[in-house]
Each structure stands twice: as structure tokens, then as C-alpha cells.
Amino acid sequence: MSCARFVFRCFRSLERLGDRLTGAAGPVFVTLGIILLSTGAICFFEVIQPSMPLRWLLAPICILIVLNLSAHYFYVCTISPGFVDEPPRMPGKGLLWAKKRQTARNRALAGVRWSEDVQLTRASVSQCRRCALMRPERSHHCRICNRCVLKYDHHCPVRINQCVGLYNERHFVLFLVYLSIATLCYAISGWPRAMDALGWNDEPWTYYSPPVAFLLVYILSVVLSLAVTIMVTWHIWGIASGETSVESQDHEHYRKVAKDRGETFINSFDLGKRKNLELFFNIGTDGYPLYTLLLPLKIEPYTDGRHWARRAGFERHPGVREGEELTDDDE
Ligand SMILES: [Zn+2]
Ligand SMILES: [Zn+2]
């Protein structure tokens, strides 16, 4: 496990370095992302898809993957992460919004949406040293946005040019999941056509898509399928552990401090792998149906960012004492 952690850490550091180096070029990268996604989709449906086995059976699945990939990329770029100085958002209406399970209980709930077998506690507040706002637990100040973000995960200038937080984290993770699936499919099923494009098969190139564009997307897919799969596994592992990216580092520190004192640090947001995933994707009896993971729909998070689900009987994390919590300045 420690080896896997080391590999994940290395990728994380590389990602951070990339984010820093390319901070100013955010909009350029988003435009590049859109161009590459469109080129990839065109090349796939013109060159690869027609020669796939069971093509008519697979076509709807391929279309669904491309729709999910594009929609979640659009959502993660356009839905703001949620800032501390904004009022809680209400769920939107319209075609793009998933329909929630209608139970008597969730009709009566406003702001905070879960109740069944989950203990929701009001988050403790602390003052931000940078913008002086009173902010709930799990918020952090983003130096690039210069605002306090609810359930701050990280600022991502390369892919989405904004912060990942409470309202767009689900789209961020689903975007990575679909990107990993799409690039894996492209890398595996595009291999014979990549040989054609290189002229190694003596097959004439009879497609409208230029072979250079096809090869460029193919090479990118091979690299991304590896990198994104590792990254998304790391993210999902964090979600299943009830931690954001920032918290996974903080908790490591708390664990060490507690151990030195002969105590044990417990993450009180960790309700067990399954429940943590259900809460993150807001799936379950009080949330949305499971199929919302397969459709390019918007859903609201389980909380307003001012209340958190905690292990029964816990008000805070045992093992870390008052005043010992890391602030944004320590990171
Ligand atoms: Zn702040
Ligand atoms: Zn930010």
C-alpha cells in the first residue's frame, strides 16, 4: 500500500507543479481542452467506431460516454465551487437537473438533505486570516480566487480554470472517470487505425480526419489513460476515506502528532467507504437514484456546506486538540 501511496503522491506533486507553471495560461488550456475533446470525438466516430465489432450495439454506449465527458467538463468549468459569502443554493429546475427521490422526509428538509441513519452536525466556524470571513469547517481560502471556498479541494487552473469545491467536485470526479474510460477505449480500439495512419499496414487512409490529428489524439489518449486512471483512483480513494485533497495532507500531519502523544487520530467525517461515496455522489434513499451517475445530469450536494455528516457521537476529530488545526498559512 505504501508503494501505491508513493506513486499517487508523485502524480499529485507533478499535477501541482503543472498547475503552478500554467496558472496564467488557464483559459488557453480550457480552449485547448475543448478543441482536443471535439477532435477526439470526431476521429472516434469517423475512424474507429465503424470498424468496431457489434458497432450498432456499442454505439449508444459510446455516445453516452462522449455526452457524459463533455457535459461534466462543461459543468465543472461553469458551475462555481461555492463561496462562503454566498447564500446556500437551491436546486435548479429543467431538463439538465436530475429528479430527486420524493420522500416525505426530503420534502420537509431545506438546505441539508440527508437525515436517515446519518448524523448531520452544524459545522464549527473559524475566521479566515486572509479575508476575515467567518467560515465553516472544510472551507479554505484560495489564493488564486482570493475567496474562501466551501469544501475546498484544490484550485485547478489547467483543466478547468477555477476551484474544485462543494458544488462542482462531483462533476470534476465524474469528468475524470469518463475521461479515463474514453481514453482507455480510444487507446485500445484505435491501435489498428494508428498503424494505418503511420503507413505501416499498407492500408490507404480513406477518412476525412487527417492522420496527423488522429495520431495526435491517439498518443494523448495512451498517455492520459495511464495518468488519469491513476489520478482518478487517488481521488476516489480520498472520497471513500471521507477526505478532500487538502484534508488528506492535514490528516497525515494530525495522525503523526496524535501518535507522538500516544493518542489516535480519527477522521470524524469518515462514515465508512460505502457511505462516504454515497454522500459524495448524493446517492441513496434520501438522495438521488444510482442511474444519475450514468447520465450527464446536474444534482445538488447532500449538504449546504455548513453542516456535515459525522460519525455518531463525534462533534470533532478525536486526536487533534483545539488550536492545533492547520490553517491555510501552514500549507
Ligand atoms: Zn478567506
Ligand atoms: Zn481558486
Which characteristics define this entry?
331 residues, mainly alpha, 8% strand, elongated, 9 helices, 8 strands
Q: How would you describe this structure to a colleague?
A:
The protein has a domain of 137 residues. The relative contact order is 0.16. Helix 3 packs antiparallel against helix 5 and helix 5 packs across helix 7. The mean pLDDT is 85. 47% of the residues lie in helices and 8% in strands. The protein has nine helices and eight strands. The chain is mainly alpha-helical and 331 residues long. One zinc ion binds next to loops. It catalyses: L-cysteinyl-[protein] + hexadecanoyl-CoA = S-hexadecanoyl-L-cysteinyl-[protein] + CoA. This is Palmitoyltransferase. InterPro entries: Palmitoyltrfase_DHHC, PFA4/ZDH16/20/ERF2-like.
Short description:
By secondary structure, the protein is mainly alpha-helical.
Low-confidence stretches: none
- Tell me how many strands there are: 8
Distance, first to last CA: 25 Å
What about the largest sheet? Answer: 2 strands, antiparallel
Query: Roughly what fraction of the amino acids lie in strands?
Result: 5-15%
Please give the share of residues in helix.
Answer: 40-55%
Name the strands of the widest sheet in spatial order. 1-8
Number of helices: 9
List each distinct ligand once. zinc ion
What do the pLDDT scores average to? 85
- What spatial form do the alpha-carbon principal axes imply? elongated
Instruction: Report the radius of gyration as a whole number of Å.
Output: 22 Å
Order of helices and strands: HHHHEEEEEEEHHHHHE
Structural category:
mainly alpha
